[in-house]
Specification:
12 helices
């Protein structure tokens, strides 16, 4: 559990776990080089900038650069006192040496030259977990997440059902053993589609979810059933993709991106209206987007990624920017966010 005295940032507990995280974390997918190449010196610099700014929560995965992000995070922090920071990583993919060259890089521009396969079985989860510990250079992680097991990634329901069954009949026992033994502090699941939350809640004894993009200034449908169901069970939430993959950081510029694709005219128009409200209060849109999810009491943290030291500093500035309560009220009055969406009281 992170020692709050080591951080300048406020902290929250994740759901019913005993894991306490800084409200601002760092997502490390960009360290796997899915957006562009990040040299080692810059990777070290951006991780150090996050640390210097008070961030003590770092989320990673074997998938990010096929091991590269875990290596980078591990090298940066393994000499720090272990109770001074929180690391979460994920299971679901096993890395292995390539069987042929050149390798298929999937979505990674850089990263390491490994292949991978999906495995949500008992043995697969235990192997993945042990491999992650080796890459990170530490002997425990704070939380472990089921990764990408939803229709967004697999596209075909038959595949989702098959892997869900594998997890239910085999892999879940591994996760429960690790949690019961105190080797991990909590079990989570990380994915992109909000409705998948209810599916997991029906099948598994979850501690929290990490969802990308589905609770932002532009999307609040999870307030209908998913978040209330989590709240009833004291299941926590961590939010990735607070900027909806770009537009809520850049604003409605011509090349703005929304959920991994070029933003359409309706989304741009709505964001432009949000920008106008923010401008009246002299508050950056990015600050409003980053802080908004933390208004909900089950949200423990937001974890934007960064491709540079400068982006880390921008995220820290956005997180620390004071936002008047009247700004939130005006966004609701203009019907730019839902009336029932709780907003921060910082």
């Amino acid at each position: 559990m992170v020692n709050a005295t080591t951080s300048k940032l406020p902290t929250r507990k994740i759901g019913r776990t005993n894991v306490t995280v800084t409200e601002l974390g760092l997502g490390t997918a960009p360290l796997g080089e899915n957006i562009g190449i990040i040299e080692e010196e810059e990777a070290r610099s951006l991780l150090q900038a996050a640390w210097d700014g008070g961030v003590r929560y770092f989320d990673t995965s074997p998938w990010y650069g096929k091991g590269q992000a875990e290596h980078r995070v591990g090298r940066q922090f393994y000499r720090q006192p272990r109770d001074a920071f929180v690391i979460s990583t994920k299971i679901g993919r096993i890395l292995h040496r390539p069987l042929k060259f050149p390798i298929y890089r999937d979505e990674w521009i850089g990263g390491l030259e490994f292949d991978c396969y999906f495995d949500y079985s008992y043995d697969g989860i235990m192997r993945s977990f042990e491999d992650s510990l080796q890459r990170l250079g530490i002997n425990r992680v704070d939380t472990l997440l089921i990764h990408d097991l939803d229709p967004w990634h697999f596209k075909m329901e038959t595949k989702v059902t098959a892997y869900m069954n594998q997890l239910y009949t085999s892999g879940w026992r591994a996760l429960e053993e690790l949690r019961d033994q105190g080797v991990i502090g909590g079990i989570g699941a990380g994915f992109n589609l909000g409705p998948t939350i209810n599916r997991y809640l029906e099948m598994f004894d979850m501690d929290f979810f990490l969802i990308a993009m589905r609770y932002t200034l532009l999307e609040q449908d999870v307030l209908d059933s998913e978040f209330p169901n989590c709240e009833k069970r004291n299941v926590g939430i961590v939010i990735g993709g607070t900027y909806n993959s770009g537009i809520l950081a850049t604003g409605a510029i011509p090349e703005a991106r929304y959920n991994y694709a070029p933003a359409g005219p309706e989304v741009k128009a709505r964001v432009a209206k949000m920008e106008a409200v923010c401008k009246r209060y002299n508050v950056p849109l990015a600050a409003v987007a980053l802080q908004f999810p933390l208004g909900h009491k089950i949200v423990a943290a937001v974890i934007p990624g960064a491709i540079s030291t400068e982006q880390v500093k921008q995220n820290l500035a956005a997180f620390n920017h004071k936002i008047p309560q009247d700004l939130w009220a005006e966004l609701k009055h203009e019907k730019l966010i839902r009336e029932d969406a709780p907003t921060p009281k910082r």
